[in-house]
UniProtKB/TrEMBL annotation:
The protein's name in its UniProt record: chitin synthase
Compartments where located: Cell membrane
Organism of origin: Aphanomyces astaci (Crayfish plague agent)
Transmembrane segments: 252-268, 288-311, 323-348
Assigned keywords, A-Z: Cell membrane, Cell wall biogenesis/degradation, Glycosyltransferase, Membrane, Transferase, Transmembrane, Transmembrane helix
EC number(s) recorded for this UniProt protein: 2.4.1.16
One MF annotation (Gene Ontology) recorded for this entry: chitin synthase activity
Keyword Transferase: yes
Highest taxon of the lineage: Eukaryota
Length: 368
């Protein structure tokens, strides 16, 4: 690693001016300056965003910023549609496009499940949230932000909270005064580590923290929208196993659940600090009430799944074969119980041979 003044180099910059030809008449588009940043080490997506926003954007001061993951291919006009939506409405602070699975393989249950999950998230969740004006998460794989809406000013702003897991110490994360003082005191009486556990899980979904901070930014009235015509296809690895998918989704579920609690608990900031109209604040109140009810239902999801499973089997088997009904319910309890024991006692890859038959049915039902 190259050294400069005793400090290891983290990023190498390459700059060039390119001029692309048009597709038909042989003319050229205006010259465009391109800067390529190559990191010394792969320190994760958030570390790359830290360089992008705090190093480059702070100097260039762009009007819009677009985030695209490696392996994600936007359609020909997708980036244009994201920017156009923010140009037409100056109140929009962030937009998200539709992410689709590239060449979905429906005979592969793992890939088919992800394809189904993406479709449900786009058709139902993102569309409904866009009507209210607040989208819980703008996916880092393909989204765009108005830089003015997220820029940190005098040490405050959405980007400060977004990068707090990188820039703040563990002690500082345990002392963040987001919650009311009485709640912090209550947690300290229980055990101060509980709050750190809450914050640690919450920052597994830093994208959700960023979205709420945009909505609740002081003296601002930013909203977020979903652009259904801005489509980007993402590559789902064909060799991914159910265990790999479970490990990824477990991290996402932890982060999204605690980040959702954080947003619901701090919703008062929307009424107190923002400059949204009263009508818009009432709409947000309805949306966050829906989110609170949804979180409660998600907490009891496993029991609700069992009740639905039980009543369906009861209608089909109670009078015909009560013995088969009891055997089926017993098998269900054994499979779910073994999953809980495995989750508490070991890692998913340690029990990979036995994970697939136990997990595929509950996981598919959870997605549906």
């Amino acid at each position: 690693v190259q050294m400069s003044m005793g400090i290891a180099a983290e990023v190498h910059l390459f700059e060039a001016t390119v001029q692309m030809p048009t597709a038909t008449d042989g003319l050229f588009y205006p010259p465009m300056q391109v800067i390529f940043a190559l990191k010394e080490a792969n320190n994760g997506k958030l570390h790359s965003h830290l360089w992008f926003f705090n190093a480059f954007c702070e100097q260039l001061a762009p009007k819009y910023t677009v985030l695209v993951d490696v392996g994600t291919i936007p359609a020909e006009t997708s980036v244009y549609r994201l920017i156009r939506s923010m140009e037409r409405n100056a109140q929009i602070g962030g937009v998200a496009g539709e992410i689709a699975v590239d060449r979905p393989q429906f005979f592969n249950p793992v890939i088919a499940a992800q394809h189904f999950e993406y479709k449900i998230a786009n058709i139902m969740d993102a569309s409904l949230q866009s009507v209210f004006g607040f989208i819980g998460v703008l996916p880092g794989a393909f989204s765009a932000y108005r830089y003015q809406a997220i820029r940190a000013i005098d040490g405050e702003g959405p980007l400060v909270e977004y990068f707090k897991s990188l820039t703040a110490s563990k002690k500082e994360l345990g002392c963040v005064c987001w919650l009311h003082r009485w709640y912090i005191r209550a947690l300290m009486v229980m055990h101060f580590g509980v709050y750190r556990l809450f914050v640690g899980n919450m920052y597994l979904a830093e994208d959700r923290i960023l979205c709420f901070e945009i909505l609740a930014r002081r003296d601002c009235n930013w909203t977020m929208h979903y652009v259904k015509d801005a489509i980007a296809s993402t590559d789902v690895p064909e060799v991914i196993t159910l265990v790999d998918l479970i490990k990824q989704r477990r991290r996402w579920l932890n982060g999204s659940f605690f980040a959702g609690l954080f947003a619901i608990w701090n919703f008062g900031r929307v009424w107190r600090d923002t400059s949204h109209s009263v009508a818009r604040k009432c709409i947000f109140t309805l949306q966050f009430t829906y989110m609170a009810v949804l979180n409660v239902l998600n907490w009891f999801l496993l029991s609700n799944l069992f009740l639905a499973f039980y009543y369906i089997l009861s209608l089909a088997l109670f009078y015909r074969s009560p013995v088969l009904l009891r055997v089926t319910l017993t098998m269900y309890f054994v499979l779910v119980g073994s999953l809980i024991v495995f989750a508490l006692g070991m890692y998913a890859h340690d029990v990979e041979p036995s994970m697939n038959p136990r997990s595929i049915i509950p996981y598919k039902c959870h997605l549906e």
